[in-house]
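Private note to self, pasted from the team thread so I don't lose it. Backbone tokens:
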């Protein structure tokens, strides 16, 4: 890549933003295209009348020195704090304390803040889903859904930081990377948000629920650091269904999903929960089941690449390192 190269990154999740920031810092002209109206992808925060909820990624951990460096920068900027809440694991009818099993961090005032911070100073085109890539004499052109006339481009390279089914569909017929991307399978996840007027008295801040047919994870989201408070709302919870249940009941109505998740938590706490409101949200591509061992895919000849948590590791740290590694490969 030469200084001033024009590069397109598709997807403003953690992987795409890590990739775009690294390329921009090396002197490339980078444009990021994002389907949604905001950055962050699955590191998301949903805000409603009861306040903010992290309905996707719950927290992150850091092991690799390159990601620890990013974490330190985010801590200095005041957009990440350690979450030292009490974390339990429910297993075979018993309860284990997992609070000290990892050092957990969250974005403040919500997980979405990571993406918002990373997108600062980047040229990000929001609400711009990319549906097709086309190679022309002057380089790559990007098209939206049903947009045959007019395109975005030209670009010297296109880097896809989207879930693998989207990448496979965009790359089909253009590079053999499409088949590699298509080999990754995903679990969906039904998530519910719940606001309570009274304290639940749960006695924990987060829990892995390993012995329930419906629930997989629950978090007292309002107890995370620096979450906003709303009058009349004592607690805000996020409830995640197990992958198998989310798969099996993919077609269930959102209200029914919320009902079943709240009911399962009430049974677990042995309390009658009467939510002020409870809503469900479906992540169709929540977790890659068989992520690739390599941290990115790069077709040097075609100048097409992919990054994301399905390359390397299904977590925020994996997504970040994947985006960074792809950018480094493009720069070599
Ligand atoms: C319910 C749930 C709980 C999780 N819990 C944790 C956790 O506790 N800890 C942890 O570390 N990780 C957790 N994760 C995983 C973590 O969120 C992901 O690993 C990470 O955020 C993935 O980042 P990414 O950039 O690879 O992908 P994404 O975040 O999916 O970003 C991809 C982006 O591409 C955009 N996009 C898609 N298609 C197009 C298109 N055609 N055109 C333009 N843009 C497009 C999307 O809108 C999105 O913004 C969780 C995920 C979920 C869903």
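Design output:
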């Amino acid at each position: 890549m030469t200084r001033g190269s024009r590069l397109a990154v598709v997807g403003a999740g953690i992987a795409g933003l890590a990739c775009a920031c690294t390329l921009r810092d090396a002197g490339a002209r980078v444009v990021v295209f994002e389907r949604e109206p905001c950055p962050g992808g699955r590191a998301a925060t949903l805000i409603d009348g009861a306040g903010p909820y992290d309905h996707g990624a719950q927290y992150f951990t850091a092991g690799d020195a390159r990601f620890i460096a990013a974490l330190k920068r985010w801590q200095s900027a005041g957009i990440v704090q350690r979450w030292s809440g009490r974390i339990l694991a429910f297993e075979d009818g018993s309860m284990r304390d997992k609070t000290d099993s990892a050092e957990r961090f969250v974005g403040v005032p919500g997980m979405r803040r990571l993406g918002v911070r990373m997108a600062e100073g980047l040229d990000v085109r929001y609400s711009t889903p990319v549906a097709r890539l086309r190679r022309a004499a002057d380089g790559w052109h990007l098209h939206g859904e049903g947009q045959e006339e007019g395109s975005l481009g030209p670009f010297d390279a296109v880097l896809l930081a989207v879930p693998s089914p989207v990448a496979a569909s965009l790359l089909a017929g253009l590079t053999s990377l499409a088949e590699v991307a298509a080999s990754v399978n995903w679990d969906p996840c039904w998530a519910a948000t719940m606001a309570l007027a009274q304290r639940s008295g749960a006695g924990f801040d987060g829990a892995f629920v390993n012995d329930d047919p419906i629930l997989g994870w629950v978090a007292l989201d309002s107890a995370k650091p620096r979450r906003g408070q709303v009058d009349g709302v004592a607690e805000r919870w996020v409830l995640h269904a197990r992958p198998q249940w989310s798969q099996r009941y993919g077609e269930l109505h959102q209200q029914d999903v919320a009902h079943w998740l709240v009911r399962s938590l009430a049974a677990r706490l042995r309390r009658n929960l009467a939510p002020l409101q409870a809503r469900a949200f479906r992540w169709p591509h929540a977790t890659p089941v068989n992520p690739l061992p390599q941290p990115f895919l790069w077709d040097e000849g075609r100048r097409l690449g992919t990054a994301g948590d399905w390359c390397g590791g299904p977590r925020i740290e994996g997504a970040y390192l994947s985006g960074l590694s792809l950018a480094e490969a493009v720069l070599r």
